[in-house]
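Morning!

This is the sequence you dropped in the shared folder:
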Amino acid sequence: MPAPLLGALYLTGCAAVAENVLLERFGADRAQRLEPLNKRTLVIQALLSFGLQIGVARAAEDSQSAIPEQAQAHARSALCVQIAAGPQPLDSRAVRTAIESELGIDTSSVVTPATIGTVRVEPGKGAFVTVRYESADGGTQLKRRMALPVDPSRRVQVIAWVVGNLVRHEADEILLSMLHRREKPAGDSVALDAPVDTASASAYGASNEPQTTPANAGNATTPKQQISRVAVKPPPAWVQKPSKSADSPNPSPDLGPTRFFHAALFSPTLAWPADAAQHAFRLSLGGVYSKVGALDGVGIGWFVNRVEYHSSGAQLSGLWIDGSEHVGVLVAGLATRSRGALSGAELTGLVTLRSGRVVGAQVTGAGAYAGGGVEGAQLSGVFSYSASEVQGVQLAGGVNIANGDLHGLQISGGVNYQSKHSRGAQITGGVNVATDVDGLQMGLLNVARDVDGLQLGAVNVARDNRGIALGLFNWSAGARLQPTYFYQTPGYHSAGYRTLSGYSTGTISFGYDPSTKRARTHFATGPRYAYDRFAIGAELGYGWVLENMSGAPSDRAHELDLIGTVSVEVIRKLVSVYAGGGVVLPVAGVVAIEPHGLAQAGVSFF
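The structure's back. Tokens below.
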């Protein structure tokens, strides 16, 4: 109401009161004589009333204009919060209310001109949720995935707390004008341009206070306005930290304090306690099928044991263990199937399957699988597979596969395969395959792309071999296949071929001595070094001698020989001659022969 009108009303009231008082106390005659004095008093009161009302009105206007722009912005601004549908339904109203309480600002379900940013909450499989934050200008986009508490009443508080930290971190310049904050001395301020990862650093209990970078820590002023620190609330005490393993696809939610005992003789529905899947235990006893949330101790079961989240200690089952991330020992009569990483050992009679990394050992009768790589040992009777690198040993009776780098050993009875870089050794009775090799390949057939090391086998193939290949047939960049004829004492005329590949040679030949009617099959391999047209080498050979070739041939002797050779390329890329000599050693268990020397000379083509 305007001040003059208030004054007039006040004056009228005062006059009426004064007139009644004079009439009652002094009578009509005397009251008439005092009326001029009363009028002067009323005029003075009216003037005072006008002044008082005008002062009150101006003070109100000044107070209204003195409201900080921050508070006005607070009243106008809001945060858009959208809750997506999912397998784990959330109470949208409760989530928005909790966020409003956490941040001290309004929320809405739609974007308006006053919206400072948008938060989208997306429930995932199991007790997990993804929180996405996008600023109003679209320049900031953050995402956090987290495990929710099993208790539904706590989930809303966790979501509100994480949203609060995301928005505080990325929208400081807007929220500082809205949040209730305590002013700090100028020396305790921090520049806006200091990079802070408040959401990630504090999402599970780390410090929430921003830190200045070395570049601006010593600056008295910065290009941006200095601001006081935002008081970020510490996380609730019950917020569960995530699993430390990066391989774990299922970090544990808050399971509360660890309980001591769980028992399930037949099934999880007939167990004590009945909600065991939502808690952690020290001791679990299972019969046909048992299921707990987590295990930090010992779990024993007749047939099937299941741990939903993480486990540590020892689990023993007569048939099957279904688990997650584990630290300790798992022993199952038939198989294990696990999500997450292993730090320890898995021992089964048939199969062990793990989606995460193995730091320790997998030992099984038939097959071992590690989805995150191996740092230790995979030992299997038939098949070992690592979906990533192997740092250690893969040992299998049949096949080893490392779909990544190898830093160690692959030993198998059939096949070793490594998809990237091998720094170590592949040893097998069958086939070795690798991309690049820094080390050893030993098997009947060795195949690689680039080799810096030794290929030892019957057949060695590489794109580029900068080491040595010792085999009956070696082939790499610049290799040559040469038909050859040579004479070897005491009287063998031999024909065959030899391969020249890098720093190695391999030879297969067949010889006949007409004077003694003996035939010999000879295999040899060894290192070779060439300079221009000249080359020197050494060959270790094996000979199998048969006699009585005119009738029924009979086995006479098996012998080893070591021969040194010198060769000259008479016509480049066409004709070479070579000669050498060495010693023959008998192999035990055949016709006794004495060690003796030998000499040979020959010619090769191409």
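Headline: The radius of gyration is 45 Å.

More detail when I'm at my desk.
O.
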